[in-house]
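Good day; I would like, with your permission, to put a structural problem before you. A protein sequence and the structure tokens that stand for its backbone fold form the material at issue. I would ask you to consider whether the tokens describe a fold that such a sequence might reasonably adopt. I set the record out below, with my sincere thanks for your time.
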Amino acid sequence: MAASLARMDTLVSTDWLAHAIESGDVVVLDATAHATDPTRDARAEFAAGHIPGARFLDLATLKDSGSPVPNALPTSEQVAARLSALGIARPDAVVLYDDSAVKTSARAWFMLRMNGLAQVAILDGGIAKWKAEGRPIENGEANAAPTEAPTLTADWRRVRTKDQMLANISDAGEQVIDARDAGRFTGETVDTVHGLPGGHIPGARNLFFRDLYNADGTFRSDDELRAAFERAGVDLSRPIAASCGSGVTASVLLFALHRLGIEDAALYDGSWSEWGADPATPKETGAAA
């Protein structure tokens, strides 16, 4: 691997990626999924135009359908099989991008990192910024020779279950941050994506994931990210668990926390699609206390 990639940041610019593609030292994955807009077809969009050399991750299908958790994180075997089919060996440096309203590259980043891939980055601004700068676009399906499936072992210590979140309400060991918009968090609006009333886990704080981005889709500076969490009432020195609708935009919060040097924040994978659908779970409405 090239020396430059040994120092690859987890958030890379379009200029950095353009040079890395030219040198052939990086695998680029389109992690687009459109959970909130069923009228869009991520695979068709990829075929119509993608970053040169990119491969389509098909994130929407990368989940454990055998789990009772909606949109559950995939097993290590599923991740390994997908990487194998895409021709990706474990040592490869991977850059993720998306063209999704819910910034799905962060979900893919969390998924790959928890399975032991250390060299994983997100393209700052995604393919929208790439296109806006007039950079080259390729069409058609990607053709990569499959590789032997890597042996992966997932670290589930950063994933929370419903039972753990229930226990957390009483012991308050972890702060809960909800990445959904204020309307769904407070219960003023319904969750049309998941067909559920609004509301939130008791004691949760609210930080809308889109508030972590600039107008052009790039991440805000570290100082601005830190200030956003603090305005939401989050103590960055204490343990954190992130939630959202189905574990996607909560991953944006986790990536932002990673940028601030916080590596032990956890994901409630079931999020509101599990919690809100269970009549037995306690729920709150209104603004965070």
Remarks:
- The longest helix spans residues 14-23.
- The chain is about 30% helix and 10% strand.
- Strands lie at 11-12, 27-30, 55-56, 94-97, 120-123, 159-160, 175-178, 205-206, 240-243, 266-268.
